[in-house]
Amino acid sequence: MEMSGAGAGGVPTKLEHDDAAAVAAEREPCGGGAPRREEKERWRRVLVVGCLVALLLFAFFVLGRESASEVLQIANSKLSAMNGGFTTKNPSHGGGAAKHADELLGGLLAPGMDRRSCRSRYQAAHYYKHFPYAPSPHLLDKLRAYEARHRRCAPGTPLYNRSVEQLRSGRSAGGVECNYVVWLPFDGLGNRMLSMVSGFLYALLTDRVLLVDLPHDSSDLFCEPFPGATWLLPPDFPVANLFGLGPRPEQSYTTLLNKKKITAVVNNDDDPASKNATAALPPPPAYVYLSLGYQMADKLFFCGDDQRALAKVNWLLLYSDLYFVPSLYSVAEFNGELRRLFPAKESACHLLARYLLHPTNAVWGMVTRYYNSYLAQASRRIGVQIRMFNFASIPVDDLYNQILTCSRQEHVLPETTTDNDNDDDLATAYDSNSSNGSGGGNYTAILIASLYPDYYERIRATYYEHATRGRVRVGVFQPTHEERQATQRLFHNQKALAEILLLGFSDELVTSGMSTFGYVGSSLAGVRPTILMPAHGHRVPAPPCRRAVSMEPCNLTPPRVGEAECREMAAVVDKEDVARHVKVCEDFDRGVKFFD
Hints:
alpha/beta; Rossmann fold; seven-stranded mixed β-sheet; four-stranded parallel β-sheet; about 40% helix; about 10% strand; globular
């Protein structure tokens, strides 16, 4: 698939496997210093510190001591991310004035892993533009403890072999050291990445080990994330046909509940009847299948008493295409731990995705070759991700006008001019140097991520036919235009992952509402995007877009469970706290997401 670039005289590149080119692309390009940028950064820090102090005082006197404590933790995370250890050496602005990037992302990544087998793990820090939150000390402790547990329990270890034998017995056993969550692929790449992150967080919260069963279409996408051990499920796993079980197999949690093969009992230590009922429960099954996809067949998973039942099961098979992390916050067993892990709630997916999801060398080569050829020399990079849904589609002209109206409303894309503007204030928008890496100066690169070429061609033509205000030179680029989603093809998924990473290296983002592709790009970038509103009913939305208040992904199908079903919800969880941090998404009024 040829890569399109807007610069005159530029030669399109290809997303292809080329080890020699990948090595060459990893060299950091050099450029001039940026004293003005450093001065702006100093003033930005002063402003942020002032705002945080004011917010802390407001929280203490108006919202109370507990809210003030949360604000203080968020402030500490923000300030840690702004210190010298978290500044990045921007590949487009090298030179002695730039500071060295923290390759470990503030301790998020474990040191000492093999660089050759996964170049992206430690190199990505040089390409990210934003580091809004440092990981909390509790998250770092939890990650290091998880890595040690994973090494003990990974496939090939005696403990893993013992757990598999227990699985073959047909019953779970108490007191075993290693319990597992097995992630199963479902839906497109963005959905898979978000459900992987959700499954990993669930493993952190429940002291389990995450294993993934990857089909061929995902076999060369992600590096091994954990030091010294694999996360891949062995092919001889005793449960057969994992990819074909669907949303409602016999071993799903709800089915097992209905058949009385597993029972959730409310925890009440003061009630002898409750203790007797717990003692009389049938032995838990060897494994339970969790159907947490868009049909949400096992919604009782999000109840505390059901979590206690699942805690006795050695093996959980996770079938989900959702980012279900916000819905875990209302579970009493997880609420307090989530608050300690993520004092800033909107940092959850951002930190976990940067920890867990590292593209393989094949994908990283595509990313770095394209970035260094087309985007590296820009002083500003804007990612525009466009996704059309069958249930919310509008004509190309209408969507293009929606993008332009949104850009004018939120001042995202460089403004073009009219015939009456003063020539002294104008610059030729169509940049002749954009594809050969000599842009520099006041140069903006716009990256279009879409299955279709129409929007790229129209935006490119706009900047070719009109000058821009403020002497801004513009290059417009689109890595691929596959025309249709083909999740079953590995190379298609590799190119899609490369585009997600390129979006993640943007300074600013415009993403399509309800698109998991855009959610992952925003989380990796550490950016609150401008969200194009979905065209529900095939009507042009008004307003055309909204600025996200939180960069967290939306859980598009949250469980609809009430106090009658989750019997402990009202008594244990602070409902006001949940309502303050889990709210309706900006782009979908039936979804929920984390807010601060």
